[in-house]
Amino acid sequence: MISFIARRLVIMIPLLALLSIVSFTIIQLPPGDYLTTYIQQLEAGGQVVDEAEITRLRAQYGLDQSVYVQYLKWMGGIFRGDFGRSFHWQAPVMDVIMDRLPVTLILSFSSLVVVYVVAVPIAILSAVYQYSVFDYFATLFGFIGLAAPDFLLALVISWLFYLLTGAMVTSLFSLPFRDAPWSLAKFVDMISNVWLPIIIIGMAGTAGLMRTLRATLLDELGRAYVTTARAKGLSESRLLLKYPVRIALNPIFSTIGWLLPALINGGVLVGIVLNLQIIGPALMQATLSQDMYLAGSIILILSVLTVVGTLISDILLAWLDPRIRYGEAN
Amino acid sequence: MVGNKTLLEVKGLKTYFPLDEGLVRAVDGADFEIQQGRTLGVVGESGCGKSVTAQSILRIVPPPGDILEGELLFHRYSKEGDAFSMADVIDLAKLDPRGREIRTIRGNEIAMVFQEPMTSLSPVHTMGNQITEAILLHQETSKAEAREKALDILHRVGMPKPSQTIDSYPFELSGGMRQRGMIAMALSCHPSLLIADEPTTALDVTTEAQILDLMRQLQEDLGMAIMFITHDLGVIAEMAETAVVMYLGKVVERADVDTLYYDARHPYTQALLRSIPRITEDRRKWLEAIRGMVPDPYNLPSGCPFHPRCRSAQGECREVEPPWVEVEPDHWARCILYADSTTATAQG
Ligand SMILES: Nc1ncnc2c1ncn2[C@@H]1O[C@H](COP(=O)(O)OP(=O)(O)OP(=O)(O)O)[C@@H](O)[C@H]1O
Ligand SMILES: [Mg+2]
Description:
The complex is a heterodimer of chains A (330) and B (348).
Chain A: H1 2-28, H2 34-44, H3 51-61, H4 67-79, E1 85-86, E2 91-92, H5 93-128, H6 133-147, H7 150-165, H8 184-221, H9 224-231, H10 236-254, H11 260-265, H12 268-273, H13 279-288, H14 292-320
Helix pairs in contact in A: 1-14, 5-6, 5-8, 5-14, 6-8, 7-8, 8-10, 9-10, 10-14, 13-14
Chain B: E1 6-19, E2 22-35, E3 39-43, H1 50-58, E4 66-80, E5 83-91, H2 100-105, E6 110-113, H3 127-138, H4 143-156, H5 162-165, H6 175-187, E7 193-197, H7 205-222, E8 225-230, H8 233-239, E9 242-247, E10 250-256, H9 257-262, H10 267-274, E11 324-328, E12 331-334
Helix pairs in contact in B: 3-4, 3-6, 4-6, 6-7
Adenosine-5'-triphosphate binds next to strand 1, strand 2 and helix 1 of chain B.
């Protein structure tokens, strides 16, 4: 197992180098660069931009150099912890990301917890009491959650919230705390606002997990080993948790690593609709305005998290399911 | 220690599955007895209700199946010195299938070995875990003691290197070893009745012979009764003292094994016997298959369900349900041919 992990870590090095090149290429793909987009915006506003100014800016941002030089400089910076500057925010990329990271993580983690805490018990009951009234309700909820786009849910729920309370959900913070530094009061204020985005972001995930788990569980419930356990004299609830639920949950818990990138990049559309200061919308904006270092860095971080998440999942899978042994056979 | 004492009486058992496609009469009149320490063989073609009969006894019939009628009288004895004396009789058919009472019987007094040793064991738990589970459930022991007992029983079932296999997962073992593990699991609490549902069907012939030997040996050592389910008449001859023959949910004949082989009365049993190869007979003789097909379980024939395939069918067989007749002492058959016998009972 340890050699398996070590091997995987070694393979990760060239993989990550490759990913950084791909990330950089992707953000270079659209024609033009940040300046052309910027100039277009200025010209659309009726301003005249003089050539000398453009050349000066181009040099300042390093956009006059070749793509390779830009890439190498960027990578060189990353090794020193410098991800470059964001053109749009006029600040280091790291600062822009760090500003948004705490709220992003709080939101994604709590949504994730809500998803599991809600979906797992409902799925178990739904499968055990298949075709009961409860199951039909859960199924209905599941289909709505899966089918309704999250931005629409965000709009509808915040509108309903407005109708009922007269308050608008426009941010995670009430006005006095918007620009205040972190404090206990600010945290408490956030908690009181955060549940709505959590519900909305968690809805699709809950519905999806519920449906998958119910289906897997129904499959497992009919297996012969469940009958064997029952014939041993085990009570229904103990039997259920020890055998079919355990086995049905294996793939779900072991793929938890795959969710790692989503922790950072989740809820893009909900974030835009509810005006949340999280990373997802920032990435989208950066890609639109060709804010290359910001976009590139976020994409790179997401790629790293994907690779790490996959490794975590593989380790979990081997640990949870004895049938899987890595690299030891053949 | 083996006495001629009744352990389980099955009377008029009917277990049906009300499905959307129609009512499946999986067991539709089963009558037999199992004696303490003896082996009862249950034979019949695939789908005749052997497994459902076994599931009914343990009350693990999968929904929507349920017992509609009949009694499953389980006799419990307490041991006083060398003699057994009857303690109580309990009708398993009346118990709540999810209740405490049946759960203290399952795995403890009546245990079961299943046909497919691979799928019948949990793939993600070790053999030891699955064996000690039953011990811990039914006996007041510590985990360490339970493990000792599990090792002991694995030893008894001839599991190679028990101290190693106890921590193996089922997928690491061969089919024969898995089935030994299953038997160990079933016998871990010393049940008075072991139900073996085609325990060797999934195994090759050599392994089958070993497992059958093992089961006979264990029966001698531990003294449990065995209900041995199979579709193989040869295996019945080897394993059982008495046997019942089932056809489409009904027990059609019941007798001791010798009588069944040499003096079968029910036309279905006779046909079954004609369909097995015998070396002593004229080699050039063709084996005889039973004519016709097993009918669709949703549309069973009226009257005697065997009449469309029966050589001796008469006009009446189409309408009249054949009676359960004691054609000779301890030899019963469900056929109209013997209806005039005076011992006929009203049971359908
Ligand atoms: N879970 C179930 N749901 C619906 N019908 C069932 C179920 N289990 C068994 N049956 C039906 O009951 C009848 C008897 O099945 P059973 O499994 O007892 O046959 P069997 O004699 O054990 O056959 P085999 O030799 O193939 O194991 C069959 O017609 C079968 O289709
Ligand atoms: Mg069967």
